[in-house]
Amino acid sequence: MKKILIIFIAGILLVPAFAQKSKKDLVYLKSGGIIKGQLIVNDGEKVKINSAGNEWVFQSAEVDSVSRYSKSVREAKPIQNYFFDTSAGVLIGNSGNNQSAPFSFTTSVNFRAVDNLYVGAGLGTEFLDETYMPAFAQIQYKFRDSRFTPFLNLQLGYQVPLEDESRRNFNNYYVDYSSSYWPGYQNNQKLETEGGFLINPSLGFQRFTSDNFGWFFSFGYRYHQLNYSGDNGYKLETNFSRLSLRIGFIFN
């Protein structure tokens, strides 16, 4: 899992670098030609541009217009009516689970409700003591319309078990209100998984490297329940509080 996360992080860090290199200035000539490259000089008398390692120099009278890639153009971001996000991360901080930092993968689709507020829904996979599919509704608020912005996110949903029985060797007291040994009875039986409620508020930062693609990082608080049932009415409810760390891609 560590190798997967290292490769994932490296990919996210390299994408902005390659995207930056792909940005080009455009010089439109009155003759109909278009020169694409890195603008060097545009002082009102002449225009110099580096294209594929060659420097081209034109008199301003030969140039119809120049489309220059600038910081203001780079930071402007059209309002999105929808977006998809896909992320991977870990859930850290609860000793009640055999895994100290279970791996989590989620993906969602989101639509703009009003201004910078988006609502959506998603699914995922989480490898706890058993494998679960988190199914959730999502609300996200972006603080500004720009290529870089912080955001607030809230997920509410349910952990759907993908395995019928728990792999854990339970050796606890399961509450059985009909038993003469109330409040519990000690048993090592396998229990059936039933899933449970989840909530995950988080704060994140996203960066678009083009109009349609970007990456993000978020951290937050994850609370969820895992419920189990056994013979003779045995029930077990476990509650987990964790720190959620996620990195991912966003596109539309």
Compact overview of the structure:
The protein has about 250 residues and is mainly β. The chain is built from two helices and 15 strands.
- In which range does the helix fraction lie? under 10%
Low-confidence stretches: 15-22, 172-186
CATH architecture call of the largest domain: Beta Barrel
Helix/strand/pairing class, anyone? mainly beta
Keywords for this entry:
252 residues, mainly beta, SH3 type barrels, Porin, 8-stranded antiparallel β-barrel, 2 helices, 15 strands
What does this 3D model show about the protein?
By secondary structure, this protein is mainly beta. It folds into two domains: 25-69, SH3 type barrels; 82-251, Porin (Beta Barrel). The chain is 10% helix and 59% strand. The protein has helices at residues 2-21, 71-75; strands at 25-29, 34-42, 46-51, 54-59, 63-67, 82-92, 103-114, 117-127, 131-142, 148-161, 172-174, 185-187, 192-208, 213-229, 235-251. The strands form three sheets. It has an eight-stranded antiparallel beta barrel. The chain has a five-stranded antiparallel beta sheet with strand order 4-3-2-1-5, with no helix packed on it. It has a two-stranded antiparallel ribbon with strand order 11-12. The longest helix is centred in the first third of the chain and has 20 residues, at 2-21. The protein starts with a helix and ends with a strand. Residues 15-22 and 172-186 have low confidence and may be disordered.
